[in-house]
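ok trying again, last paste got cut off:
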Amino acid sequence: MKMYGAEVVPSPSELTEFGRRLLKENPDHPGSLGIAISEALEAALSDESTKYSLGSVLNHVLIHQSIIGQEAMEQLKSIEEEPDVLIGCVGGGSNFAGLTYPFIGKMLRKECKEMDVIAVEPVEVPSMTRGEYRYDHADTAAMTPLLKMFTLGYNFVPPPIYSGGLRYHGLAPSLSVLVNEGIVKPMAIDQKESFSAAKLFAETEGLIPAPETSHAIAAVIRRAVEDRESGREEVILFNYSGHGLLDLEGYRTVLAL
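nice, full thing came through this time. structure:
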């Protein structure tokens, strides 16, 4: 971002009262998306010319991202295929919903066959697999309205894992409903397995995935191995949601453990 002229301020920062308080309590605070949202809100409220829109966990963002799934449908139609399994990584839920919601809509309307829909999160930040389904704030300072979602608690401090986009305490409300109803099945995968899966993907496909994406790839590999061992044939569709060329230091660290 700095290469393109942006001023980048790591959160928590000294620019807001909330950030200064957190840094005073813990100078090495690892930060989180929830903290960044709180600081952005505080900055916006202190400047009449500034507006802020929460961009990852609210339902309108998920709907906006659904162009991903709509395009995937057209691509599959051109080769006369339908997925049996949908897989994506989840932090707040927007990229996952972007791929899966158009397919889930068709499935619930009985316009296509039943599919397994698998949402993959890190073991280190397990909002779906170990969180509670209740009302909670979307930010750490509790400034946002309450959202009914799976959450680890708005004051949860995520460990400093390399999958930065997945370090979020909560889950989009509409996706939370689908998880609660059993339509979407959550799965948690740790950093070591996900990075190892990404390395295999890079070796076979020539693309280095983002650490977030590598969680989905690890789940795809698990499912493909199950299919091979059982003799089952399936079409597995997953969302390749980012490249990892800016995350090579994370790869070096995790894969060296």
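cool. The beta strands are 85-89, 116-122, 132-137, 146-151, 185-189, 236-238. The chain has a mean pLDDT of 94.
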